[in-house]
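INFO batch 0412 | record 1 of 1 | parsing
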Amino acid sequence: MKGLLLCLLITPITQAGTYRWVDENGQTHFGDRPPANAASDEVELKAPAPSSDAEARARKQRMNEFLEQTERERAERNEVQAKREAKAAKREARCQALQARLKYLKSVSGIYRLNNDGERVFVEDEENERIRREFRAKVQSECGT
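INFO prediction complete | emitting tokens
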């Protein structure tokens, strides 16, 4: 509300005319009211166009540099986030595979190895239990489950 009132008060001032006159000594004067004792002409003043001085160019350059830096930082953050997500997805897939193997290991009654002739040789119960225990520890350490 105060802003609107201020605009209404300022508007007549900015729309007031500017007058030019020459006094009896030949000096030119300007004012917002015509003089009472001399002939005057109303002068239309035009606001100067915004200048593109060195300071304005420097401000624009700093703003552009800031925007470019911000964009680079955003791209770097996005790249780091994408790498983090890819790594998490890869870890999740590996954990699912390990857990599936662990489930299979629990379901079989005995573990075997192939000898040099390609024949199955079942391991002893102690080694069977050790292999299962080591695999459970591996799943635990890699997957946290």
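INFO post-check: The chain has three helices and five strands.
INFO record closed
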